[in-house]
Amino acid sequence: MKSELYKQLTILSPYYKENYLPSVSIDCVVFGFHNACLKVLLIKLKESETWGLPGGYLKKKEDLNVGANRILQERTGATNIYLNQFKTFGDKNRSEAHFKDFPDDLWHKQRYISIAHYALIDFETVTPVMDQFSDACEWKDIDMLPELMMDHQHIFDEALIQLRRDLNYKPVGLNLLPEKFTMPELQKLYEIILNKKLNRGNFYRKMTRYNILDKLNETRKGGAHKAPDLYKFDIENYNAALKTGLQESW
Amino acid sequence: MKSELYKQLTILSPYYKENYLPSVSIDCVVFGFHNACLKVLLIKLKESETWGLPGGYLKKKEDLNVGANRILQERTGATNIYLNQFKTFGDKNRSEAHFKDFPDDLWHKQRYISIAHYALIDFETVTPVMDQFSDACEWKDIDMLPELMMDHQHIFDEALIQLRRDLNYKPVGLNLLPEKFTMPELQKLYEIILNKKLNRGNFYRKMTRYNILDKLNETRKGGAHKAPDLYKFDIENYNAALKTGLQESW
């Protein structure tokens, strides 16, 4: 297979071998929320019909968290995104089939363990940028994913489980909702992430107990119903809860 | 430094290079509970004053979870322990000082990212066994840890945070408590892991809601107070909750 991509990878192999840590790769599951819709950022490798998660390699003299953010920026143009490392994938045959037509000494063909990260952002704030290996970088609806390369569907599934699990101890919503929002709008965000309806009273009580919301002396005017109260996040308490966890019932 | 350990490591380096994946190591934080006491399993490298977590390297043709269990068994003699992979540690200088007196081509001196796992077991069921590099393998009280090598104190701290966090969505207690136990005994287990007192009524309500306990028609006789009810775990519901998470309030 003497394609353009093959030529590029062959030329780059010695450079990668000199500067990057062998056996280690990083993949990013970037969830995007906007207007009650949850998407994920995917890239399409050149000369390939399948899509994949944005990913790359760790430099020999680079901290892991620095490398993860660099890779996300290089492959998507997205900066200042807080990445949550959630799991490392290391099945022995996870990428075996992917470069099977390429020569064995190609950098990209070695066995990698993948350190996976996820993030949740407002997708209107990011303009994806393609790198030299990709011919597409797009937001895809999480309910209608295309076929994904290697074990990327599995990595995506685990990221979604982790995102939902994290709602049990981390606050969510800052930078995803407008500065002032109603309780039903916040509840809708949780419902979309969890993909289920929540009880309104329980949600209100739980949220109030977390002590991360400031109730404003304003209401959202204009609806047919009684104007709902507006809230904003108490940034200090919100950030404290990000670090130490929400006040759990244990 | 021409010590015995150095000679051993030098002789073994070519074997490791041929059979193990470069840059990747695995560390295990094994928490042991018994009689209201929480400990962690540590090993002491030969010719070293500091202790460390049991760890090792991943074989080139070995799945990550298989490698983690093999390493734990080789270094501690412990088998059939369910390991929870919780975080990968990849600071660029995490192990740099540790082998600084050794030659650069030593297998052990390369930069490793460490894929960390934790487990929680009854420490009476495990008899630690030393391997060729260690001269001690012991259970240490988590409140009185000795000085740990490299970033192992940080890895331990993160494991404890994760263990506590996991109590929010995973059941705990099977194989740690006797088959029949009282609610105060179960509460005590949670209190020791969380290192705080819990409210008795809240604990009872939360536990009952999880639907993983069978209340028996028996009481614990012999105390000065009213004999407390005995419970056992509903194994089917317990295992289902391990897989899919406890019924959360969201």
TrEMBL record, chains A, B:
Concerning InterPro entries, the annotation shows: NUDIX_hydrolase-like_dom_sf, NUDIX_hydrolase_dom, WH-like_DNA-bd_sf, WH_DNA-bd_sf, WHD_NrtR
- Domain named NrtR DNA-binding winged helix: residues: 173-233
Q: CDD domains under this entry?
A: NUDIX_NadM_like
Q: Which residues form the Nudix hydrolase domain?
A: 24-151
The source's superkingdom equals Bacteria
PANTHER family associated with the record: ADP-RIBOSE PYROPHOSPHATASE (PTHR43736), SLR1690 PROTEIN (PTHR43736:SF4)
Q: What is this protein called?
A: Uncharacterized protein
